[in-house]
Amino acid sequence: MDFGGSWNKYLPLVEFSYNNSYHASIQMAPFEALYGRRCRSPIVWHDIGHS
């Protein structure tokens, strides 16, 4: 990926992706391990609103 020299602007997105990705060593996402529930991202909010 080419961030055009401003990679630090994208760090929150990278951190969010990492913290909400499945990790085989703990068999869940780090967010889920820390808070005991899955992260409710805006995509999930949209899905919940239409169910």
UniProtKB/TrEMBL annotation:
Q: Which SUPFAM superfamilies match?
A: Ribonuclease H-like (SSF53098)
List the Gene3D superfamilies.
Ribonuclease H-like superfamily/Ribonuclease H (3.30.420.10)
- Per the UniProt entry, the signal peptide is none
The record, for InterPro entries, names: RNaseH-like_sf, RNaseH_sf
Q: Name one GO molecular function term.
A: nucleic acid binding
**Which source organism?**
Helianthus annuus (Common sunflower)
What name is this protein filed under?
Putative ribonuclease H-like domain-containing protein
